[in-house]
Amino acid sequence: MGLDLNDAVTPYRDKVGSGINVIPELVKEGRILLPATVLAERRINSAKNAWRDNYFFLGDAFAYSPDGKKFRAVLNSEHLRAVNKNTRLSNGAIPLEEGVYETLEGEEFVTAKVQEYLGKDLSPQDVKGNPVWAAFITDKALRDEYIDRMSEQMKQRFGYDKTMGVFPADNTSGTAIIRPAVVDWLGDYRSQLDGGGRIDNNDARWVGVAPEALSAPGKAIQRPSLEASLRVVNDTLRNAGYEITAFPRK
What we know:
alpha+beta, 2 domains, 3-stranded antiparallel β-sheet, 8 helices, 12 strands, globular
């Protein structure tokens, strides 16, 4: 019998604590901070209730304009990923230098123009029409299934008819800022999307996602053995006219 030389990859690793300490640890492992799309997929498909019965701080972010009248949905925020013990925070947010907000990628919203979608829970049909949710979960099929499935669960378990409100934070600092998006649990907070996450919150729950898990959600992930990896290299070099006698073809 051959040797088992494979190392199993842990697809998702969570840790509670201030992002100043936790984010560098997860990033050092080569992990991606949990995006809203992955959280939606896990809540739909995972048998583990922990995905649905806990809140999560995301790698996606809310960025707020200096005048506080606009905000952007920033997916896989580079600013969050770069957080470390030297990151300067203002009221739990990262202050952005002048002009940086305008360069951020992500759909922008004028708060006054989308006010009907903000600050309150909505029916499942109205949640599907919420452009802010659409900006964070861009796959419509995934988003609609997430809304349908979680709304059904919240109706059955807690009797909620309206859920999944979007609650951006206020920004009165006069400086552009960026904050982690937070998705709440299905219970008391009805899976709401919160834009007021504090990076320095000691109770923040962060999840690092192995890049392999993005293409194989919920499946066992294996790193190839050293033998398999070397054989690929050996065959590739042989095809180019070279031979490695130290690791010959069997």
